[in-house]
Amino acid sequence: MQIIRPEGSRIFFGRQGFTLLELLISLAIMSVIVTVIFGGLRVGVRAWDKGESLVDSQQRLRIVPELVRKQIASLTMPEVLKKDSKWFFFEGDNRSMAFFSNISLYPEHEGGIVYVRYLVSEVGEGKEKLAFFEKDINLFDSTELAETDQTVYLDLLSEYTSISFDFMAARKDRVSTTEWLAAWLPEEMNGVPQAVRVTFQNDGQKPPVVLVIPVHYQPVTEE
Predict the structure, then answer these.
(1) So what's the pLDDT on residue 68?
(2) In this structure, what are the phi and psi dihedrals at residue 60, rounded to the nearest 5 degrees?
(3) Percent of residues, the chain, with pLDDT higher than 90
(4) pLDDT tens string 190-221
């Protein structure tokens, strides 16, 4: 085939340009691709953060109850006098608990006796949290026995719908040897309970996590 062209004219092969419509379509396709890529990246980051949060939560659910168990099991009874001239050893109800222990939950604590107070409070959305307040006995003042300022407490757990305490005491009758009490009041009870039961309820469909912690200290008796 013979190509006839006017004199002085030029024919360019392989250098055809893009039209404005083609350019706009290309930009639209590129924007969709970038949006999909960044959307997938964002989903991946959220999944990663959620996974780390879940791992941290699961670790807390394993570690914190064990730390609480050790601290309660190492309960001790120093001679701390209350304002009403009565000795304080242990106090608790379904929502709080206070005592002295040889074990601190603070890693930087070098040892010795500490005053500990656990407190259960609501955090919203049907959840409750377990927090604690701790102080070295050398810096302790008896006015802090009823410490309720939540700003001084450190949160331990907040994944449960219900957290409660019960206390084992020896029964006065001969029907059974022990009973679980909802409160341990120093003015009514001698010494410390034989055991502490901590119940963590996650929801109504799953069985609760129950810690029964023996207290390795003989309760004092009146002479």
Answers:
(1) 85
(2) -65, -40
(3) 11
(4) 778 889 999 988 876 678 888 898 887 644 34
Measured distance CA(186)–CA(193) in Å, rounded: 11
Does any domain span residue 181? Answer: yes
- 47-101 residue pLDDT tens: 776 666 655 666 767 788 888 888 888 888 776 655 555 667 788 999 999 888 8
- Please count the residues of the chain: 223
CA distances from 202 to 5, 172, 205, 206, 210 (A): 87, 35, 8, 7, 11
Question: Structural domain tally of the chain?
Answer: 1
Give the pair of three-digit tokens for residue 201. 């309820």
Tell whether 48 is covered by a domain: no
- DSSP per-residue string spanning 164-196: EEEEEEE-SSSS-SEEEES-B-TTTS-S--SEE
How large is the C-alpha radius of gyration of the chain? 34
- Sequence-distant (≥ 6) Cβ neighbours of residue 163 within 8 angstroms: 120, 128, 129, 130, 157, 198, 199, 200, 201
Is 191 among the domain residues? yes
3 belongs to a structural domain: no
Tell me how crowded residue 98 is: count the other CB atoms within 10 A of its CB: 21
Tokens 């409160």 locate to 183
The domain in which residue 70 lies consists of: 56-214
Q: Give the burial string for 184-223 (b: 16+ CB within 10 Å, else e).
A: bebeebebbbbbbebbbbeeeeeebeeeebebebebeeee
